[in-house]
Amino acid sequence: MKLVDWAKQQGITYKTAWNWFKTGKMPVSAIKTPTGTILVQEKTELSETKDAWIYSRVSTYAKKADLDRQASRVEDFCRARGWAIRQVVKEVASGMNDNRRKLRKLLESCPSRIVVEHKDRLTRFGFGYFEILLKQLGCELVVVNRDSEEKNDLVKDLVSIITSFCCRLYGLRRGRNKARQLKKELL
Q: Does residue 98 share a domain with residue 27?
């Protein structure tokens, strides 16, 4: 389809779409014909792809054995659906941490399908935003156990927030106490 038609379909101006094409930021592939017309290739349906990228996460190294079991369960889920597993990403990090190196690398690679066991394995907050944005980028986000999570989400989120703030406060207090102790020793 022509760039002007694609821009109307997306609800953006032609100028914005043209700038995206010019800077290489188009969310879909587009080519310029010898006559100068820009043609946008329409997205294929997400369900057509047979590839899957698995993301597993635990919050502490004490739960590292659970990380392997989690990844294994998701691998079994993917194989049962006939999906080829392209990569299994395992990470030990807090779900509240927005600077997870392995997750960032996975998202930058722009896979066609990311599979997680529970939605909190991807992130504690903002999961809905992940779903929307990944869909716009042509990436399907599959959650294996979505039904069992809805009941206790609010309580888990509240505990996560309190834990995160407590850790920050204790970290600040520890730093302040070390500075006082060092000052006493120096004087």
A: no
Q: Are residues 140 and 94 in the same domain?
A: yes
Residues 82 and 13 in one domain: no
Nearest CA to 144 among 95, 86, 50, 77? 77
Distance of CA 129 to the CA centre of its chain: 9
pTM for the whole thing?
A: 0.56
What letter does residue 47 receive in the DSSP assignment? G
For residue 181 the two structure tokens come to: 């102790």
pLDDT bracket for residue 56 (50, 70, 90)? very high
17, 76, 86, 18: which is closest to 49 by C-alpha?
A: 86
DSSP 2: B
- The residue to which tokens 């100068």 are assigned: 36
The label of the residue with tokens 């587009």 reads: 30
The span from the CA of 72 to the CA of 56, in Å, is 9
**Percentage with pLDDT > 70 across the chain:** 89
Tell whether 23 and 60 lie within a shared domain: no
Q: Yes or no: say if 55 and 103 are a contact pair by the CB < 8 Å rule.
A: yes
